[in-house]
Description:
Blueprint lengths: L1 H4 L7 H92 L1
Amino acid sequence: QILLNRTPAPTHPKHLGDLQEEHSWLKERVKQRENELSQKRESNITLEKRSRRLKVEHQLKEDELEKEIQTLEYALRRKQERNEGVRMELEQARFSLKARQADSL
């Protein structure tokens, strides 16, 4: 009685056909999945290359800006030194003028 309730062995034509169909479907699905993964790998490689290129470009820009900042800071220091020199000359001229005015009195 237990033997009668068992499902037929997989070699039964109906089940064999189902298994072959499922096998074909699974093979196709595996192939699709492999293609998807291959495309993702290619996409990741492209993104990694782009990321490295952008990092290099960013570093070059950063270096360029740092150099420009240093140039501007140098120019500012020079201008401040000149302004200080002019201020000292102006103070000297005022002092001399006051001295001459005092002498003429």
